[in-house]
Every structure is written in structure tokens, then in C-alpha cells.
Design goal:
- This protein is α/β, with parallel strands linked by helices.
- It is built from 13 helices and 10 strands.
- Strands 1, 2, 3, 4, 5, 6, 7, 8, 9 and 10 form a 10-stranded mixed β-sheet that branches.
- β1 (about 40-45), α2 and β2 (about 70-75) form a beta-alpha-beta unit.
- α5 (about 160-170) packs across α8 (about 225-235) and α10 packs across α13 (about 320-330).
Length: about 325
């Protein structure tokens, strides 16, 4: 009798162990990318200025991809920023990029080449608009820029797009009421320090290293952009609807802010590709972006804002099927 009971107990244990293995196998099948192998080949990722957040994020993501997808060669290509990035992906000159939502919408509204083929993979982090002046400057608002020399970003940058919209919302003509200089974050800080410009626009994640370094060697101030200007931007319609009121935290640039938060604008950044990109590749790249948030966030603080709960919202772009597959696989 005891022998029979022992045998029955062993059988139950075997059945239970088999059930556990089956569940684990199904779970792994569900979570792992289809096929379980790394995509191969080469992809080109358009980033940004060498001193900007896009480029730094791209370098760190490249390292993550090398570990997670060892057969994939991810190559980074510098750019002037969001507008150039969108154009490169839409026309097949790059496979993936990071671009601000307003630049994506502007490209779509103009119905430029390949606009219909653009797809979103993830909403990443927000860019904050910076209007930087010397601490001794009399410029206290966007309207005060009239008659001054202002670095408004390179022609293909998201900064240029934002500067044009913000200036117009403040009642200024970007070509007549200021002296616009097509300089970005690579040159504008030095020009401000050397009195070559009176102010410069920048749009990027917090903090941007070039601005942190500038504020430590030269006394600067961030000009507030208030909610009244946000309302005027929204009244413009089009791409301006993607700007929202935000507050730059007091500790973003301690040497420039001296404990004061600064009202400004923010716009979401998207990971962008084309509809023709492979579903397996796009699924695994999206997975790597989300899974590497904390590791990348230790070096690029803006990346800490990447959130699985909001990443799926890639307006104005529909989700790529591969990205959709990833979000379905992690849905609770």
C-alpha cells in the first residue's frame, strides 16, 4: 500500500514538473522574437549633431543592439536634426531615426516624398525648447528678440522648425524682425560666449551636455516661454499642435537657473522607420529600445522618460506592424 502511494506521489510530481516546463516553454515562445535569431545585415540610423542628445542616445543604443542582435550592423549617421532625419527615412537614405513629432507632421502635411510610408516604433522622450541668452542680456521674452542676432538652428533641424513657429507666435517675422543665423548646438554656445549672437534656440532632452558645459564657463539665462505663447502656437494649427506647455525643472541646469524652474514648450520624440522595414527587425529593435531604458538612462537622462505605457502612442504616425507585435507580446 505504501509503495503504491509513493508511486502515485512520484507520478503527480512528474505531471506537475511537466506542466511547469510546458508553461515555461509557452512563455518563452511568447516573449522571444519569432524565430529566436538575431536579424542580420546592416541598418543606417540617422541621429543628430555630434554634441546633441540624439547622437549620444544613438551611440548607446548601438551598443545595446550589438549585444542583443550581434548579427546586425547598426551604423550611425550624423544629421542636422529632425527635419533631415524624417526626410532621410522617408526617401530610403536611412532605415530608422529619432525625430520630433512636429517635424514628422510638417513633412506629412507637405505631402513630401515617401510621407505615406513613414511608421512609428515608439514614443521616446520629450524635447524641451531652450531660449538661451547671456545673464546680463535685456532679453526677457521671445518678443524681445526683435532686432537681435539669433541662432535659429540649421536648415534641416527641428530647432529651425520650432524657432520659426515660436517667433511667429510672438508676432515676429523670422526673416525680417531678427537677424537669423543658421547655427545649431555645435556652434551657438561658443557664439553666444563670444558675443557673435545675442540669443540662440535649442530643442533637446534634459540636460543637454553642451548647455551644461556653457553654463559652467559663462553666465547664461533661460528665457521663459509662457502658456500664452502656447495658446498662440496651437492657434497656428498644423504641426504646432504637437507643442505643449512644460516646465524645465530647476535642477536641469543649476548654474543657469539658480533654483528656478522655467516655463517652456515640449514636443515628443519618436522612433521612426518605413512600412517596408522587416517586421522581425522592427519588433526586436523596439524591444531593445524599451528594455535598455535604464541602462541608457544612466548616461542620457532623457532616456529615463521612455515608458512602455506611453511608447505605443506614436501620433502622427501609425505603428509599424513589427512594433505592434512587440507591444502585444508584453501586454499584461
Amino acid at each position: 500500500m505504501f509503495t503504491g502511494l509513493a508511486g502515485l506521489g512520484r507520478r503527480r510530481m512528474l505531471y506537475a514538473a511537466g506542466a511547469v516546463l510546458l508553461v515555461l516553454g509557452l512563455l518563452l515562445w511568447w516573449l522571444l522574437p519569432l524565430g529566436g535569431t538575431s536579424p542580420s545585415g546592416t541598418i543606417r540610423v540617422s541621429t543628430g549633431s555630434p554634441t546633441g542628445v540624439y547622437q549620444k542616445y544613438g551611440v548607446l543604443l548601438q551598443r545595446e543592439v550589438a549585444q542583443q542582435m550581434p548579427q546586425l550592423d547598426m551604423r550611425l549617421v550624423n544629421s542636422d536634426g529632425s527635419q533631415e532625419n524624417v526626410r532621410r527615412v522617408a526617401t530610403g537614405k536611412a532605415d530608422f531615426t529619432i525625430a520630433a513629432a512636429d517635424a514628422v507632421e510638417e513633412y506629412k502635411l507637405a505631402n513630401r516624398q515617401g510621407a505615406d510610408a513613414l511608421r512609428g516604433c515608439a514614443r521616446l522622450y520629450d524635447d524641451y525648447v531652450h531660449l538661451v541668452v547671456a545673464r546680463s542680456s535685456g532679453i526677457r521674452s521671445v518678443a524681445d528678440l526683435k532686432g537681435h542676432r539669433v541662432a535659429v538652428g540649421e536648415s534641416g533641424s527641428g530647432v529651425r522648425l520650432i524657432a520659426d513657429h515660436v517667433l511667429a507666435a510672438a508676432g515676429l517675422d523670422p526673416r525680417r524682425d531678427i537677424t537669423p543665423l543658421p547655427k545649431g548646438i555645435g556652434d551657438a554656445p561658443r557664439l553666444l560666449q563670444e558675443r557673435g549672437v545675442d540669443a540662440f534656440f535649442w530643442s533637446g532632452g534634459l540636460p543637454t551636455a553642451a548647455l551644461t558645459q556653457l553654463s559652467r564657463r559663462f553666465p547664461v539665462r533661460l528665457v521663459p516661454i509662457g502658456t500664452d505663447l502656447v495658446r498662440r502656437l496651437h492657434a497656428q494649427g498644423g504641426a504646432s499642435r504637437y507643442y505643449r506647455a512644460a516646465v524645465m525643472p530647476a535642477d536641469a541646469y543649476p548654474d543657469a537657473q539658480h533654483g528656478n524652474a522655467v516655463p517652456t514648450l515640449a514636443v515628443a520624440n519618436l522612433l521612426v522607420t518605413r512600412a517596408s522595414s522587416g517586421a522581425d527587425l522592427t519588433e526586436q529593435l523596439t524591444r531593445t529600445v524599451i528594455d535598455s531604458r535604464d541602462r541608457i538612462g544612466r548616461k542620457v537622462h532623457a532616456a529615463q522618460r521612455v515608458d512602455l505605457r506611453t511608447a505605443i502612442y506614436t501620433d502622427p504616425l501609425p505603428l509599424h506592424e513589427g512594433a505592434r507585435r512587440y507591444y502585444r507580446s508584453v501586454k499584461p
